[in-house]
Write a structure and sequence with these properties.
By secondary structure, the chain is α/β, with parallel strands linked by helices. The chain has ten helices and ten strands.
Length: 244
Amino acid sequence: MTIVAAREIEVSYYGDILVLQGVSVEVEEGKITIVIGPNGAGKSTLLKTLYGLLTPRRGRILYRGEDITGMKVHHFLSKGLAYVPQARSIFPELTVRENLLLGCWIMRRDGKAVQEALEYVFSFFPMLREKQRAKAGTLSGGQQKILEVARGLLTHPEVFLLDEPTATLAPIVAKEIYAFLENLRAHKTTVVLVDQNVKQAFEISDYVYILELGRNRAQGPKAMFQGKLREVIQDWLDYEIPGG
Ligand SMILES: Nc1ncnc2c1ncn2[C@@H]1O[C@H](COP(=O)(O)OP(=O)(O)OP(=O)(O)O)[C@@H](O)[C@H]1O
Ligand SMILES: [Mg+2]
């Protein structure tokens, strides 16, 4: 069953330049959908639109069949969507615990729910329990990213949108994050992952979307791309390094 969908969305930041020119995606519940494509393809823009940070000029965003186009972000959040942006979004001067408590904002009147949410993320990332009192800015880059991911997880999202969560991370931390995402399947959490680490993202994926220049280039179940991914990536490399 499709849990979240974009139907032929057109999105621009300003003026007449359409960054997404009629992009469509259907995200299957409980599966891992990856969105890949070269720089500037519109991957981050798609994710922001699925989370309600941007409103399409044309086209529709559907959640469990309900049209939620144009709703405010807190509606998307209360529907069960969570989002981890590409850029760093933690507060370095606050402690790890304080950063997590900010992610519990929508349940702030329910102490028990907050405690359960913290326990839920600590069960995935015990490191955060140990570092609760540390200023977030003193964590390593990998630990900071784990904190951001954990903050998204606090609301127990039905759909978890992540924008390049492993970019710039050491391979060992990246591996931990991929293993965690794979593990979310067992928790029935739907994952939409934008990633430049095409190979690793592909390994954990169920469904693949390839965007190029603001349009759908190809899509299909993982099996459709098995053994063919290299060709696709080669295209981007040829494009980015002409003759190189
Ligand atoms: N805030 C913004 N204002 C204006 N234009 C933007 C903004 N953010 C992105 N763009 C433009 O929109 C296009 C798509 O950007 P987007 O960030 O969605 O691509 P991407 O596929 O995520 O790329 P990357 O792999 O570099 O993260 C690019 O041409 C970019 O310059
Ligand atoms: Mg991006």
